Amino acid sequence: MRKGKHPDFSGIFENSQRQFSFFENYEVEDEVEVNNALGVTEIDVDLVYPNPNQPRKIFDEEALNDLSASIKKHGIIQPIVVNKTDKGYMIIAGERRYRASIKAELKTIPVIIKNYTDRQVKEVSIIENLQREDLNPIEAANAMKKLMDDFSLTQEELAERLGKSRSSIANTLRLLTLNAEVIELVSQNKLSQGHARALITLPKPMQKILAYKSIKEGYSVREVEKKVREYLAPPKKKTPQKTNVSLELRDLISRMQRVFGTKVSAIGNDSKGRFYIDYYTKDDLDRLFEIVELLEKK
């Protein structure tokens, strides 16, 4: 490990491309090596169990069924990578193949047994998850956050290690600040990442309302952005325009201001309109009460 504040990811990220091709190379090369060393072992499928900290939470059932059918016909071409534990063999890479094997009712599966540390298991699991083609934005955000939390990385440092821009990392992580139901909609691919990002500046209850409405109405991202702008900056209400008043009406307004001791305004003309009497303090209001009482006594 290099000296410095943060751990060295070179063993995981070396020569990584945008789609994390290094991990694919890593796993294939490792498989060739262990095959040459007769390191692939067939073990009882019941002894294998998923990593409880696996970042991936959603597995497409249709895709699993397709893979299961392929495994029934051709077998498992690429062994599953596991770590030996007291409970059995924990999956490090290949949980999708494992699940498909269960569906295919295999009794044994080919595995490559590793002796990784907890740290290495965590690194490999997250990186394998991030390089998936079907990774949804919320899974990506959770995986990125886990890397940052576990290894005390800033967004800039994570972006450098993943070969992404800092803004790309920031935009993905911001999805985790959304309303919980909106996050679920994105996870289920019912709402796109672009639509979800447009909702971030709204209060959480409004995020949910507009998310469901955009799905129902088929709003584009631009339409959602427009709705958000309208909500955050509603059009100003037009103030009624004052009409020209006659000299007699102006004189009446002046006399009323002297009597009431406060501002008086009028909208209208000699035929019809409204008077507005302003008061600014409790004393102003008390004075108006006294004037009204005097007028009532006359």
Question: So what's the oligomer here?
Answer: single chain
Q: Give the averaged pLDDT, no decimals.
A: 80
Overall, the morphology is rod-shaped
CATH top level of the largest domain is Alpha Beta
Number of domains: 3
Give the structure's gist in a few sentences:
By secondary structure, the chain is α/β, with parallel strands linked by helices. The protein has 14 helices and 7 strands.
Description of the structure:
The protein is α/β, with parallel strands linked by helices and 298 residues long. The protein folds into three domains: 10-166, Conserved hypothetical protein from pyrococcus furiosus pfu- 392566-001, ParB domain, CATH 3.90.1530; 178-232, no CATH class; 247-297, no CATH class. It is built from 14 helices and seven strands. It has helices at residues 10-13, 21-36, 61-74, 95-103, 118-130, 137-151, 155-162, 166-174, 180-187, 193-199, 204-217, 221-232, 247-260, 282-297; strands spanning 40-44, 48-49, 80-84, 89-93, 108-114, 264-268, 273-277. Strands 1-5-3-4-2 form a five-stranded mixed β-sheet. Helix 6 crosses helix 8 (166-174), helix 7 packs across helix 8 (166-174) and helix 10 (193-199) packs parallel to helix 12 (221-232). The longest helix is centred in the first third of the chain and has 16 residues, at 21-36. It is rod-shaped. 24% of the residues are buried. Mean pLDDT is 80; it is low at 1-38.
